[in-house]
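Section 3.1: Structural characterization of target chains.
Under the original work plan, the team committed to producing a structural model for every single-chain target entering the pipeline before any wet-lab resources were allocated. The record below documents one such target. The sequence was received from the expression subgroup and is listed exactly as submitted; it comprises 416 residues.
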Amino acid sequence: MENVKFDLFLGNVDIDFKGYKIKESVHGIHSYPAMMPAPLAEFLIQSFTERNDIVLDPFCGSGTVLYEALKNGRNAIGVDINPLAILISNVKINIGKIELSKLEKFFIEIFKAYQQLEGKEFELPKFKNIDFWFKKEVQINLQRLKTAIEVVDQDIYKLFFKLVFAKTVRNVSNTRNSEFKLYRLEEEKLKQHNPDVWKTFERDFKVTEEKLLYREITNNTNYVKIFHKNILDLDEVENETVDLILTSPPYGDARTTVAYGQFSRLSLQWLNLWEYDVDKESLGGKKKIGEFDPILFQLPVLNSVFNKILQLDSKRAEEVLRFFHDYFYSIKKLTKLVRKKGYAVYVVANRKVRGIEIPTDEITKEMFEFFGFVWVDTLERNIINKRMPLKNSPSNIQGQKDNTMLKEKVVILRKI
């Protein structure tokens, strides 16, 4: 373990990173579900790689790992099925190229174009339930703003304003923005909900622009490649070329855990990027046709928890197994990409289904071991500043509550 700083695993480092404030970080440019804390990503990158090594995040989300890899002189590869994740990641890794004076200039041009478009007729989007999620005046002014943004003629700046627009879409919608899943405002609140699209966009722009002050990437020769696809379909990375896989994967199918697609849907529909239901296309999102791979039943930890849930609820047991079927095949693909003596580090949380805890850390460990990796260590950290209820109903029975995920496990494995 030439690259590993052994003292880091003796309890001398607080990997909770309680002092970390995303608002005082470039990673605050856009919210995203289940973001890995940047100090944790940096800590793990520094621990398991050297300069110019290749770091792969197969579920890159908002690009935290990619940015931290680039910042620390590593090369990075990101993969995600969600177009909003790709947008945020692309802005983040290119944020060092943005000149504040030019950004301000484009903002003024957008404002002028927006004013000139007042009173004009627009063909509004026709996606499902648009009137349910947006009041008509908001729709008109969002289309007006979207049209105005087209005056920006430089790619990275246009991407930046599209990211701000994505934030504004959610902020002026009829959703309860305190949550990632889509919930419509209560009728009384909805009556008083008359957002000003331009003022919201201006506020969102200023808040996003402030994050540029925290940029730490300088011009370097390292690269970042980002692929918009399901990790199961990734063919662009050669075998045995990756030094570290570092990721926070989904903890289960999106319908019953973190609904990345629900969080992103409205913004993507307005940006014409909603090509498919992200949640249905993600791991475990599709119903399995035919029998499950028999190999899954050879994995003791997975098989044990599956049988426990099966005794209580066959449908939920099938959903769990469906997710881990896809999870297993993603790991199978990824293990081939890691060079010998390279590492895989998965930051996971153990959810509950029908009151039974699913030991995702142990299942991850046994899956990697199946493909020839050796387990190095599992670290535990508290999840700080969770944006989800402290309790939920994993049994879906009214009145029955249980704690949601309050801790994460950092599972460290190495290819022999």
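Residues 1-8, 387-396, 398-402 have pLDDT under 50 and may be disordered.
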